[in-house]
Automatic annotation (TrEMBL):
Keywords: Cell membrane, Membrane, Transmembrane, Transmembrane helix, Transport
Subunit structure: The complex is composed of two ATP-binding proteins (BtuD), two transmembrane proteins (BtuC) and a solute-binding protein (BtuF).
Reported function: Required for corrinoid utilization. Probably part of the ABC transporter complex BtuCDF involved in cobalamin (vitamin B12) import. Probably involved in the translocation of the substrate across the membrane.
Gene: hemU
Organism field: Methanosarcina acetivorans (strain ATCC 35395 / DSM 2834 / JCM 12185 / C2A)
Record's subcellular location: Cell membrane
Membrane topology, record value: Multi-pass membrane protein
GO molecular function, one term: transmembrane transporter activity
Protein's name according to its UniProt entry: Cobalamin import system permease protein BtuC
Similarity remark: Belongs to the binding-protein-dependent transport system permease family. FecCD subfamily.
One annotated Gene Ontology cellular component of this protein: plasma membrane
InterPro entries per UniProt: ABC_BtuC-like (IPR037294), ABC_transptr_permease_BtuC (IPR000522)
Lineage: Archaea, Methanobacteriati, Methanobacteriota, Stenosarchaea group, Methanomicrobia
One GO term of the biological process aspect: siderophore-iron import into cell
Amino acid sequence: MTTKEVKIQYKKFIGRKIFFTFFLLASIILVAGISASLGSANLSLGETYSAVLHRFLPAYFASSSLADVCIWNLRLPRIFMGIVAGFGLGVAGCVTQAILKNPLASPYTLGISSGAGFGASLAILTGSGIIGGDYLVIGNAFLFALLCSFIILGLSNRKDATPETMILAGIAMMYLFSAMTTILQYFGEAEAVKEAIFWAVGDLGRSSWPKVSIITITLACCVFLLMIKSLDLNIMAAGDETAASLGVNVKGTRILLMAVTTLLVACIVCFTGTIGFIGLVAPHLTRIAIGGDNRFVLPVSGLFGALLLISADLVARRVLAPIILPVGAITAFMGAPLFLYMIMKRKREYW
C-alpha cells in the first residue's frame, strides 16, 4: 500500500470517528426530547424543545406554564442525571478495561458498587453514618465506595499494582462487602430491607438539579485528568515493559487512573445506586465502531453510555406506565443479550 493510500484510509477512519460521535450526540438529543415529552402530561416534541429553548431565547420561543413545570422541574433533572451518570460510567468502564487489560473489567467487578451498597444499607438499616440528615445514605455510599477502592489500591501498591492483583483485590472486596450487606439485611426490618434493596438496584428517580450539578463538576474534572493520560493508556496497551521503556511510569499511571476513576464512579453511585452493564458494554461497542485509540474511545464511550442509560430510563418509565421500573434492572435486561451477541459475533480483537 502506498503512502497516498495510507493517508486516504486514515482520513476515512477519522471521518468515521467524527460521524459516529455526531450520530451519538444527535441520538442523545432526540432520545432526551422524546423522554421529556412523555409522562402523565404528554407534550409534543415541538412543545418540549420550545420549553427548553424558551429558557435561553425567550424572544424567539414560546412556552406554557405547564410545559415549563413538567420539563424543567420534573423531567429534565432526571434526564440530565441519566446523561452525566451514563457518560461517567462509560468513561470509567473504558479506563478500567484499558488499565487492567481485561474485557470484563468494570467499576462494578472491582467491588466499588458493593462498597457503596454496604454504605447505603448501613445508613438505611441502622441509621448510622458520617453525615446526617438528607445526605445520610449518599454520604455513606460515597464513603464506603472510596474506602473499598483505597483498600484495592493499597493492596495493589504492595504488589507493584499489576492488573492481576487489582482484579483479585477487587473481587475480594466485592465478596466482602456483599457478605456484610447480606448480614445487615438479614437482621434488618422488612421495610428498611426493601428500601435498601430498591436503592441497590439503581434508579434515577432521586434526581435534582443540585445533585446533577455535583456530578457534572466531578465528571468534568475527572474526564479532563483522564484525557491527559489517554496517550499513556495507548502506550500501556503494548505491555508494561514496552511502556516503561518509552518513559511511562506504569505503576504510578495505573494507580492515578484507578483513583480518578474511583472518585468518579463513587460520586455517581452514591446518587443513583448500582447501575450495571453501562460501563461494561459501552466501551466494547465503541471499540468495535471506531477502533482502540483511547484518545477517541474514552469520550465516545461516555457518549455511548449516556445514550444507553437515558434509553433504558425511557423504557423503564414507559413499559409499564404509570409504574416506573428501576433503571438498573432495565440496563441488565438490555446489556445481557447485547453482550452475548457481541461474544458470538466477535471476529477479531479490539484490544
